[in-house]
Amino acid sequence: MSLSRLPFSSFFTFSGKALSRGALAAFALSLATLLAAGCDGSQPCADCAGGQGGESSTGGGGAASCTDTKGTLTGTVYRWAAPGDPSSEIAGGSDVLLYAGAGAEPLVAKAAEDGTFSVPLDPGTWTVRGDDGTGCESTEAKTVTLEACETEVVEVVLDVCTG
Description:
The protein is α+β, with helices and mostly antiparallel strands. The protein has helices at residues 21-36, 45-51; strands at 13-14, 17-18, 71-79, 89-90, 95-99, 107-110, 116-121, 124-131, 136-137, 142-146, 151-158, 160-161.
């Protein structure tokens, strides 16, 4: 009998029993989901790929998604004062400076016009500052510890303006 004439179930068996097309399709879908989520076996993929809710890397909410083993830092940049203060205003288009350690060159993320930002980062401790490019910057650096597949929120306040 040629291979083309063998029944479909002859090719896919588990413990000597043939898998049905439905079981095979479910297995393939599960495998594809894990691979698309970037799960590599070094993290709790089930937790990250859908078990825990959280912000998405685009800031739109929903289930957390594994992008390699990164976490996500989100927040808003304000000018003059923290939110809730009458003098506070959104600082859209500002730079968010992200430092992975003392003496490290910053990674620079750009806040959207509504002041929000969302950045996938490697797990670890990050120092966050802001600068709007017109002379306003944050004097207080925020320190954030980021875990893989988790989202941390930080408010950046540009409290000193010299320009």
